[in-house]
Known about the structure:
The chain is of the alpha/beta class. It has helices at 24-41, 60-73, 86-95, 128-139, 160-169, 176-182, 195-205, 234-242, 270-284, 298-305, 317-327, 350-364, 368-372, 393-403, 444-461; strands spanning 3-6, 9-13, 49-54, 77-83, 100-104, 113-119, 154-156, 185-189, 210-214, 247-251, 258-261, 289-292, 310-313, 331-334, 338-340, 379-386, 408-410, 415-419, 422-428, 434-441. The radius of gyration is 22 Å and the shape is globular. The model has no long low-confidence stretch (mean pLDDT 94).
Amino acid sequence: MTLIKSISGIRGTIGGKPDEGLNPLAIVKYTAGYAAFIHRHAATESRRIVVVGRDARLSGEMVKSLVTGTLTGMGFDVVDIGMATTPTTELAVVMEHASGGIVITASHNPKQWNALKLLNAQGEFLNEREGSEVLALAEEEDFTFAGIDTLGKVIADSRYKERHIESILKLEQVDAAAIRKANLRVAIDCVNSVGGMVIPDLLYALGIREIFKLHCNPHGNFSHNPEPLPENLTEIASLMTQARADVGFVVDPDVDRLAIVCENGQFFGEEYTLVAVSDYILSRTPGATVSNLSSSRALRDVTQRYGCTCYAAAVGEVNVVAKMKETGAVIGGEGNGGVIFPASHYGRDALVGIALFLTHLVKSNLRVSELRALYPSCFMSKRKVELAPAMDVDALLEQVRNRFAGYDVTDIDGVRIDFPDRWVHLRKSNTEPIVRIYAEAPTQAEADALGGELFQLVETFAGLR
Length: 465
């Protein structure tokens, strides 16, 4: 069994002995640590409210019961929004003027996993300092439960799906009338989680009349690997041609990642979800864009077409959001299909991504495959080097940085080396003794070769060859 503690929360496999896995004792301890953190930092006593939402995982109800019981035991009122997407929960925190929120989801991990994602009063993930404080409070059990007269209560509120959709329809950049007029046929795969509850309703609200659904029953027993990668999505690729659908959308279990499928069954590419949406936003509102260091250079190329600047952030949504605020970016996100649109909120949101992409598509008057052809073709290679637990990974990465000192090197998160028409990024895992290597080049063979070259170099520096 596995339990991984990080600044954004805890995640692990369900079950196991008290000192392993995401079991009830661990859930209570880390929820109480988070509540103690909120007690310390909430602006006023009257704001002791925490929003709780969950995806459709089999363990979700069990975990939610422990989380809400612990929060009320710590003196908080809980607004329980039930099964809801991560971005819906983020928006609910703001709409409720709450002190924070907990999303019960393990994102794209398989069904045996679950997690607690921790939000601040802005509905955003905790930063490194805040997350570290929560972990310390939990580990030291530095918290005190409320007495009988100050226990919190649970308030159920199932309206936030509709509120989320309403907020999207109000976005200036979303043109539901144009989408309705285009009479599109849309296929979706919601991997038996909360996307199946909200994406059809969003599409109907946008004027889509024909929807072809795969795995929209939110029972949590995922029908395939829930990470929205091409190798896991053969069913919707076949459905596109069978149903003569114009576009396909696939989300992960908590609906913060969006993959797009072309009308011919080919994949748009998860790296290009953000690229396409950014192209549309920049055409209306020129400004800065942000993505993390491991995301495609295509975003930079598209941003520069509009005479604007694309900034790089360290990997992790909280880092991308911080850079977006610093630069006043009009759009940003991550190359895993995560779109962050500040006009809505500072969080990855597949629902916002769908609405903006559909608007872009109908206004372009192109097929999805034709739209994809407008963007530079870049190919990525992803590898990892497993190291001994005692290995000084920072020292190893410093050796790599020195080796390529004559090139454009960025070291805010590991080491990224930019060459004229390609790049490679090496970063250490926060949870495992490994170095991840991401490379991008004009062809898949060149990306694989560049990644392989750095793989061999890291192994040499690590004494593995």
